[in-house]
Amino acid sequence: MSTTPPVGAVPWLNPDEERAWRAFLRVVVAVQTGTARDLAAVGLSEPDYEVLSTLSERTGHTSSLGEQADKMGWSRSRLSRHATRMESRGLLRRTPDPADGRGCFLVLTEQGLEALEDAAPAHVQSVRRHLIDRLAPDDLAAIEQIARRLEEPQVGDDRPTT
C-alpha cells in the first residue's frame, strides 16, 4: 500500500506530522495566552505593545500605517481601528502622510513611550517565564532556524516579503 496520494488528492498528515502540528499549536496558544494575560495586567494588549515597541525603535518614533500593518500581518483598516483606540488613550497620534492621501503616520507620544517603558520589564519577564527560561539554548536556536525557514517565500506564494 502506497502512502503517496493520487494526483489531485489531499496529502493528509501522517501521525508524526499531526502530532507536530498539534504540539506547535499548543505552544503558540500557551505562550500567547500567558504573555497577553501578563501584558493586560499592566494595561496593554499584545497589539498595543507591538505598535508601541515598533514606534519606539523607529527614527522619530514614527511609522506609516501601511508599514506597521504589514509588520503585524494586519489589514490597514484593522490597524486603523486599533490605532484610533490607542490614540484615544493618548498612546500615539496620527499625522497625514503627504505621499499617500489615504495613509497616515503613527507617532509615539510621550504617554505612549512611558506606557511602553512601564510595561517592558513585565513583558520581558513574561516572555522569559512562558518561553525562554523553559528551553535550552539548542531549543532556542532550533526555533530561530525554523522561523527563518518558514519566512522564506514558497513557490507560488504571492505574499509580499517584509
From TrEMBL:
GO molecular-function term, one example from the UniProt record: DNA-binding transcription factor activity
GO process terms (BP): response to stress
SUPFAM superfamilies for this protein: Winged helix' DNA-binding domain
Alphabetical list of Pfam families matching this protein: MarR (PF01047)
Record's signal peptide: none
Composition bias, Basic and acidic residues: 84-95
Residue ranges of the TM segments: none
Spans annotated as Disordered: 60-95
Origin superkingdom: Bacteria
Boundaries of every HTH marR-type domain copy: 17-152
Protein name: MarR family transcriptional regulator
The species this protein was found in: Micromonospora arborensis
